[in-house]
C-alpha cells in the first residue's frame, strides 16, 4: 500500500444497490484494510456489514463495520453513493434538487469529523454533485473526484469489443462530457490495438457501417435507461468502476481514467465538473489530459458543459 504502514480506510455512504455492490467488489480485491458502511437506514448498513464479514474466510483479512460519521476522520477515501436513483423515464438531471439537499448534509457531516482524505462521488447527477461536494467540503479540487464517464467509457469499450470481436482490453476510446444524455464519443481518437478505428475498419473490417457505430454509441448513452427498465437499477459495472478508481488512488497507480473533475481552462472550459481523461493517483486528480478533439467533438463537449452549467445554476448560484 502506498500509505506505507498506515491502515487504509474506505468509508461508503449509501449502502443501496451501488454502495453495497461496491463494498462487495472491494472486499474481493484486497485493496483496503478497513471498510465502514454508513446509511440513513442503519439496519441496512448493519445487515450488509454482517453479510460481507461472513464472506471474509473466503477472501483476505479486512475489518468491516456499520459506522457513523466520526469514522470518516481517519478515512483515506469517502465514497458517496447515497441518494435517490432514477425511476423509469427519469433523467439523471431530474435528481438534482433532492440529491443536492442530501449532499449538503452528508458532506457537512463528513467534514465535521475532521476528514482530510479524498471524496469519490457516484450519486447522480454525478458531475453536479461532484461540484457540490467540492463546494460544500472546501477541499482542494483534486481531492474531490466524480465517477464521471468511467462507466460510459467501459460500456463503449465493451460494445466495440463485441462488434469487432476483439478483447475489450485492446479497445481504447473515451466517452467525455456529462455522465448523461449529452455525453459524446471521441471517435477521432478511438483505437483498436494501436490502429485508429477508421484505419482498422479499412484494413480488417471493411463491411463495418457508420450506422452500426452510431447505434453502438446510442446504446452506450442510453444503457442506464435500458437496464433500469429491466431491473430498476444499475450497480455492478459502476461498482467495479468505483473499485478501479479506489485502487488507482490507494495504490498510487497514476492511471488515466475518465473521471468528473474540475476544469479551469482545459478544453476552454471552466468552473464545472465534467467527465474528461485525467491522471489519478494517491493525490487524487493529478492532471487533466487534453486529448485532441475534432471540431464536431469539441462543439459537443462544449454543449454538454453548457447543459451542466444551466442545470446547476439554480442550485448553486441563484439560491
Ligand atoms: N455515477 C454512475 O455511473 C452511477 C450512479 N448511480 C447513482 O447512484 C445513486 C445510488 O443509486 P442506488 O444505489 O441504485 O440507490 P438506492 O436507493 O439503492 O440506494 C441509495 C441509498 O442511499 C441511502 N441514503 C439516502 N439518503 C441518505 C442520507 N442522507 N445519508 C445516508 N444514506 C442515505 C438510502 O437509504 C439507500 O440505502 C443514485 O443517484 C444513482 O443514480 C447509479 C449507477 C451508476
Ligand atoms: C444510473 C447510471 O447513471 C448509469 O447506469 O449510467
From TrEMBL:
Pfam families: Ldh_1_C, Ldh_1_N
Binding site for beta-D-fructose 1,6-bisphosphate: 157, 172
A single GO cellular-component term on record: cytoplasm
Sequence positions that bind substrate: 86, 92, 124-127, 152-155, 234
Keyword tags: Allosteric enzyme, Cytoplasm, NAD, Oxidoreductase, Phosphoprotein
Catalytic activity: (S)-lactate + NAD(+) = pyruvate + NADH + H(+)
HAMAP family noted in UniProt: Lactate_dehydrog
Function in brief: Catalyzes the conversion of lactate to pyruvate.
Protein name: L-lactate dehydrogenase
Species classification: Bacteria, Bacillati, Bacillota, Bacilli, Bacillales
Gene behind the chain: ldh
Amino acid at each position: 500500500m502506498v500509505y506505507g504502514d498506515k491502515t487504509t480506510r474506505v468509508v461508503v455512504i449509501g449502502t443501496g444497490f451501488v454502495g453495497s455492490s461496491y463494498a462487495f467488489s472491494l472486499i474481493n480485491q484486497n485493496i483496503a484494510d478497513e471498510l465502514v458502511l454508513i446509511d440513513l437506514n442503519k439496519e441496512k448498513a448493519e445487515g450488509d456489514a454482517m453479510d460481507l464479514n461472513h464472506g471474509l474466510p473466503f477472501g483476505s483479512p479486512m475489518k468491516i463495520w456499520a459506522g457513523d460519521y466520526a469514522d470518516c476522520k481517519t478515512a483515506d477515501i469517502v465514497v458517496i453513493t447515497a441518494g435517490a436513483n432514477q425511476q423509469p423515464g427519469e433523467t439523471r438531471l431530474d435528481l438534482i434538487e433532492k440529491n443536492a439537499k442530501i449532499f449538503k448534509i452528508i458532506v457537512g457531516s463528513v467534514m465535521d469529523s475532521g476528514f482530510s482524505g479524498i471524496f469519490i462521488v457516484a450519486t447522480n447527477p454525478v458531475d453536479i454533485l461532484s461540484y457540490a461536494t467540492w463546494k460544500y467540503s472546501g477541499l482542494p479540487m483534486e481531492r474531490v473526484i466524480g465517477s464521471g464517464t468511467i462507466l460510459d467509457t467501459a460500456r463503449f469499450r465493451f460494445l466495440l469489443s463485441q462488434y469487432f470481436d476483439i478483447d475489450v482490453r485492446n479497445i481504447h476510446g473515451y466517452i467525455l462530457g456529462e455522465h448523461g444524455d449529452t455525453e459524446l464519443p471521441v471517435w477521432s481518437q478511438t483505437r483498436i490495438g494501436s490502429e485508429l478505428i477508421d484505419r482498422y475498419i479499412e484494413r480488417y473490417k471493411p463491411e463495418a457501417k457508420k450506422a452500426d457505430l452510431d447505434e453502438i454509441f446510442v446504446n452506450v448513452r442510453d444503457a442506464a435507461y435500458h437496464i433500469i427498465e429491466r431491473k430498476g437499477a444499475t450497480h455492478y459495472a459502476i461498482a467495479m468502476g468505483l473499485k478501479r478508481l479506489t485502487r488507482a488512488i490507494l495504490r498510487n497507480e497514476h492511471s488515466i481514467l475518465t473521471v468528473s473533475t474540475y476544469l479551469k481552462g482545459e478544453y476552454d472550459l471552466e468552473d464545472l465538473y465534467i467527465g474528461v481523461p485525467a491522471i489519478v493517483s494517491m493525490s487524487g486528480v493529478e492532471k487533466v489530459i487534453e486529448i485532441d478533439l475534432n471540431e464536431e467533438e469539441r462543439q459537443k463537449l462544449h454543449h454538454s458543459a453548457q447543459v451542466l452549467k444551466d442545470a446547476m445554476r439554480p442550485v448553486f448560484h441563484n439560491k
